[in-house]
Structures are given as C-alpha cells and as structure tokens.
Amino acid sequence: MADTVAGLLAARSGDAGGGIRTADATCAWSWGEVAAEAAARAALLAELGLAGRHVGVLLPNVPEFAFLLAAGALSGTVVVGINPTRRGAELARDVRHTRCALVLTDAAQAPLLAGLDLGAEVRPVDDGGWDAAVARHRGTPVPAALPGPDALWVLLFTSGSTGAPKAVRMSQGRAARTAAGAAVAFGPADVLYCAMPLFHGNALMANLLPGLAAGATVVLAPRFSASAFLPDVRRHACTYFNYVGRALSYVLAQPETPADGDNRLVWCLGSEASPRDRREFRRRFGCHVTEGYSSSEGGVVIQPYRGMPPEAMGRPAAGADVVVVDPATGEECPPARFGPDRRLLNPGAAIGEIVGRDAAAEFEGYWDNEAADAERTRRGWYWTGDLGYRDGDGTFYFAGRTADWLRVDAENFAAGPVEAIVGRFPGVAAVVVYAVPDPRTGDQVMAAVELDAGAAFDPGAFAAFLAAQPDLGTKWAPRFVRVVGAIPLTATGKVDRNPLRAERWDTADPVWWCPPGEPGAGFRRLTAADAADLRRAFAAAGREGMLT
Length: 548
Prior knowledge:
Elements: H1 5-11, E1 19-22, E2 28-29, H2 31-47, E3 54-58, H3 63-75, E4 78-81, H4 88-97, E5 100-105, E6 121-124, H5 129-135, E7 152-157, E8 167-171, H6 172-183, E9 191-194, H7 201-214, E10 217-220, H8 226-236, E11 240-242, H9 247-252, E12 267-270, H10 275-285, E13 288-291, E14 302-303, E15 315-316, E16 322-325, H11 347-350, E17 352-356, H12 370-376, E18 382-390, E19 396-401, E20 405-408, E21 411-414, H13 415-422, E22 428-437, E23 443-451, H14 459-467, E24 480-484, H15 498-503, E25 511-513, E26 524-525, H16 528-540
Parallel strand pairs: 1-10, 3-4, 3-5, 4-7, 5-6, 9-10, 9-11, 11-12, 12-13, 23-24
Antiparallel strand pairs: 1-2, 7-8, 14-15, 16-17, 17-18, 18-19, 20-21, 22-23, 24-25, 25-26
Helix pairs in contact: 2-3, 6-7
C-alpha cells in the first residue's frame, strides 16, 4: 500500500468504485472522480502560490472539504482544519497561530470570521467563483511528482477539553500508516457513515482515509444529528460508523421502535461511550460497538480485542512499551485488583498516566509550541495526558484526563472511577465529576448529572446510594450535585469540563449540597444565602481568588 496520502489517491485514479456520497443522496463521486477533483484543486492551489503553505478550511462535512484535504496531499499544501465552535479572538488566534495564508469557507460560516484580525485572505467556496476557478483545471492529471512521507499534510487542533487547543502536526506518512492499519477491517462493499467533523483526527483516521485505502464508500453527513442518523444509515445501507464521546447516547435518546434493528450496520468504532450505552446500542440496533484508544497526536494506540472486559479499552500492539506510571515519580503503577463484581479495589495505587516509553518518536509535535512538545515527551517518553489503569493481563482501562485529578484532604484521586460509581445511580444518563475549590484548602468534589427523560433527582435516595457503594473512596463522595439539562460537549462530542469548573455552584441549574458541619443532614438545595456564606468563607480564609 502507498506510504503517503497522495500515493493512496494516485492509486485510485480511474477507480470507478467506492468514493464519496452526500448523506442526502443528491451527489456521489467514485474514488477515481475524487482523485480528479483533488488534482484540479491541487493545480488551482499551485496557481495561487499556495503549494507548501497553510490553508485553513472552515466548512461542515461537505465534499468540498474532502476534496481540499485530498488536494492538499497532492500539492503539498498544508490543510488546517478550523473548529467552527471557536469564536472571536480565539478563532482568530487559531488562524494566525497556524499562519494560514488563506481561509476557505462558505456563506454560513463566513460571519464567524467577519471583522477578525486573521492575517489571511478569506474566500468563499459556494459563491460560484471557486467552482469556476476549479473548472479551469479539470482534466489536470494527478501529478507525477508527489510529496514524500515526511511532508506535513494537516494541522489538527486538539479538542480543547482540558485547555487551549493545540495544533497537532500530521505528516502524510503517519496518516497513510494509520489508514493502512485501519483499512484491513473494510472492503470495497463496505459503506462508512461519517458524521464526526473532518477538522478532527477521528473522522480522518477512523473513516475517510481507511475508506480511501480500502476502496469503500464514505457517506458524508454535514454534521452529527441523532434524528437523522438511522434514516441516513438505512438510506445508504451503511455497514459502519465512527463516533466520539456521547454520540451513542444521543441516538439512544431517540424513541425506540421495533424497527430499530432494521439496518445493515455491522460495527462501529469510537471512544468514551459508557458501558451502558454500548450494551444498549448493540441491543437496539444489532451493531457491535468497539472502543479503542488513540489521539490526534498519535504516540500510543490501544486496540480492542475479542472477549475483553466490557469496560476495557484493550491492549497495545505486541512489543509496545506502554505502561501506567505515577506522574510525580515516573514509577510504574501496580496492576489493578478487582472484586468479584469487577469493581476496582486499589484505585489510589493503580491509576496513573498512560505513557509510551518507546513512543516519543511517533509524536510529530505541535505546530510552533516547543513548551507543549517538551511536556509531552519528558524523560524521552510519550506522556498521553490521560489517566488509566492496567490489569495483570496487560489490558488497559480509561480513568480520565490528567487535568481531572482531584485533591481532597491531601488525598489525590481521579475523576473517572467516581463518575463510574455515580453513573450507576438509577436515572442518571451522564455524569461529569470535577474539582471545585474548598474554602480552606484543596478541592471539593462536584458532580454534574444529566438525567434520563422524565427522571427527577431524589437527594435522599442519592445519599443512601452513595453510602451503599463499597468502592466509593472515603474522600470521593460529591459535596455538590448539579442537575444539568445537557452535559456540555466540545465540537467533537467530548465532555467539556471547562465551563462547569468555571461556574461551580454559581448557576441557574439546581444544585444540591452537603453543607460542612451538618453531619447526617444529607443533600439539600443550595440557596442564594448558602452561596453568599461560601463566598464569605473563602474571603475569611484569604482564598477569594479561587472564585475568580
């Protein structure tokens, strides 16, 4: 198989099979036609003097985005996927930081860029002018001289769920290697449904590129829609889809019908869905749900395997030196121990950061961010920034982000196991656990819960539930519970803790709490007077700055 994205495209020249379709079934291109469209745009980019330069793309999942990604590969132009949920100065910062010479967008997205200091030209692709310029170059063959494996292909912004987004470098070689590994699961008869955004690595590496490499068909939905999901899958007889975060839960929230299983789906691949959602999705839709672990940065890949525990991520490739270490000492954490009900017995010892001790070379770095590069590769290892634990058989389990550590009464612990416990409470559809400041020192535990449709939060039942959980650490019980209409998500469907942390208990949502000094009182509603008392307590302790 070709060792570059450009080579994968060149190999499809003249191929009348597979290709790209729009979800509304109005347009379709074979892979040979995709390669021809890419060659025309590659010639136009070269004519505009953009070969080797950076071009931002601010578009939904439309064929033009896929053509531009392919054109960038052929011409050596670096495509920068712009996140449409970013706004104002932060959006301008993304464009300037990545040194885009041009941003291609459409009429719907263009207002996001209006009046911003971008340092780049903005050009629409849907006003007729772009199509006319492309048309002048139709018939241009795929170039004979193509960029090599080390050529930078795309810059992919991280989700920003734990801090400011960083632009990840992805070369043509890394992209092609990843696609080749994933493509073995598909054949020309497969139809891959892609509703995750093309500006993110998940859509590229778990759908578009494997589809290209395998000669399968890729169905592009402009954006993820829970109500459109099943009609789209049925219309195109899709056999596979990819997801991130809570996509499964949104589909499951649609009314169940006896016809849910009437589809051609065989399997899907994603990350961060709850075990409950995975089981329920397979029951309703007859689709095998597979979870794995990877990131836009590369470095560490953990693959699922047949028969693994349902809450597990899987194992690294044979021979890969992937471990769980204490981030403070660098010492390897002991294996996880489980009770007969598979509940983790030694979280304090077993949970640490997932590290690839032989994977630093696989990380190609962030764009113009040496400090972040150094943090990611300290000690010559690749630090994922994710928490996990590993059992005695070498199977890995996810426990949250390193930014999700909490410190209560001098005890450090991860949010992930607490979320798993709170998620068992009947009526909880989703939960996020995070630290809020304590008036005296360290943190207190706050949980934001999204309830099932029609469910109501019962504070007494919740307190009794927590008291009955044998694996709930003595410092883990939430002091605050916020009932939200919907858990906030990033543009890629991952949980976004940042607004929850910033708002704490200062929100219009109902907040229940266990006040200090009221032993046995359980949870009660937090009032405006309670919030004022909290602010005074912070001021008295000289920690009012923690509330800003």
